[in-house]
Amino acid sequence: MTQAIDVGDAHPIGDLTVRTIAMPADTNANGDIFGGWVLSQMDQAGGIAGVERAQGRVVTVAVDAMTFIRPVRVGDVLCVYTRIGHVGRTSMKIHLEAWARRFQTQLREKVTEATFTFVAIDEAGRPRPIPSGS
To answer: Nearest CA to 10 among 115, 105, 87, 81?
Structure first.
């Protein structure tokens, strides 16, 4: 049995960037949502945050180790939170947390987290400097 996180004690870190519902087409043979679907939602959220920070195109170049803490199930609302970490000359690290709001409940549980590295690119696909500032 999955132990619930008390939302009074634990809460997401960062800005809510993507919110979507897990659908039957996204499941594996066990009826759980594919980990790759969750990873894809996190990549999209990181891309949104990266584009805003870099003021232009970014590409994903790395994902730190990712551990799936709890499954996501059909009907759960997946919420992905982003927080910009280190920003270098052309790259940045963005920490992402994925939380599931369980179907027809107010229960919210962290399902995974990771740090993605994005590189800002120009129109030709070459790395470009990230503007300074926030």
So the answer is: 81
d(CA 134, CA 132): 7
Question: Which pTM was predicted?
Answer: 0.90
Q: Cβ(45)–Cβ(113) under 8 Å?
A: no
Return the pLDDT at 18: 98
Single-letter code of the amino acid located at 19: R
C-alpha–C-alpha distance, residues 12 and 30, integer Å: 27
For residue 130, the SS3 value is coil
Pairing label, strands 77-87, 91-101: antiparallel
CB 49 within 8 A of CB 60: no
- Long-range (24+ apart) CB contacts under 8 A made by 130-134 are 130/53, 130/54, 130/55, 130/87, 130/88, 130/89, 130/90, 130/91, 130/92, 131/54, 131/55, 134/53
